[in-house]
């Protein structure tokens, strides 16, 4: 069974995007699709990025723990809010902190906003950063407009129609995970 790390990117008080992270954890576990762990950046409270983890002389233990959890995950689901058309500094901080851990890692992105566009403005800048470090970002996205009206604090949803949108999104992530496993160790001579 694959293991998914869900990164809950918001560190704001009263955050709504964490509800979406809880929703995905509940969805995946209740269907026994994978094991799931939420990596909550609010709990980590990383200092500002100063150097990639691999080059730090004395990294903090929580950074090593985070690196290990991302590295061991078969896939990563990033749940990020949109802040002023971009993604939060807390997420940029951990994207830049790691490098090898992101390479070829299947990643799904769920964007969250209180507005009607579902955080879609965040995707361009986040995609570029992840592509630059060779992450395998799936083509399907999961925007969550007006999330405050859809998700309860514990991640339960008020509209069961959301499950119908989640299914194809997660299928893409699991397809990428399976393809990644099949290609692991494959070395084409060019």
From TrEMBL:
Q: Which domain of life is it from?
A: Bacteria
TM ranges: none
Q: One matching Pfam family, short form? A: FMN_red
Task: Report which residue ranges the record marks as coiled coil.
Answer: none
Show where the NADPH-dependent FMN reductase-like domain sits.
3-146
Molecular function terms from GO: FMN binding; oxidoreductase activity
Q: What does the entry list under GO cellular component?
A: cytosol
The name this protein goes by in its record: FMN reductase
Q: What organism does this protein naturally occur in?
A: Taibaiella soli
């Amino acid at each position: 069974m694959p293991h998914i790390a869900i990164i809950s990117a918001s560190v704001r008080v009263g955050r709504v995007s964490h509800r979406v992270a809880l929703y995905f954890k509940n969805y995946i576990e209740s269907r026994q699709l994978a094991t799931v762990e939420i990596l909550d950046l609010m709990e980590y409270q990383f200092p500002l990025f100063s150097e990639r983890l691999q080059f730090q002389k004395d990294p903090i233990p929580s950074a090593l723990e985070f690196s290990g959890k991302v590295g061991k995950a078969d896939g990563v689901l990033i749940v990020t809010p949109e802040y002023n058309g971009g993604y939060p500094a807390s997420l940029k901080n951990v994207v830049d902190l790691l490098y090898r851990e992101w390479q070829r890692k299947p990643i799904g992105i769920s964007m969250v906003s209180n507005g009607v566009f579902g955080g879609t403005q965040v995707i361009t800048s986040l995609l570029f950063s992840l592509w630059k470090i060779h992450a395998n970002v799936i083509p399907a996205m999961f925007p969550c407009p007006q999330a405050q009206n859809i998700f309860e604090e514990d991640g339960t949803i008020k509209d069961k129609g959301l499950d119908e949108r989640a299914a194809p999104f997660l299928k893409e992530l699991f397809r990428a995970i399976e393809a990644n496993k099949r290609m692991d160790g494959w070395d084409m001579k060019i």
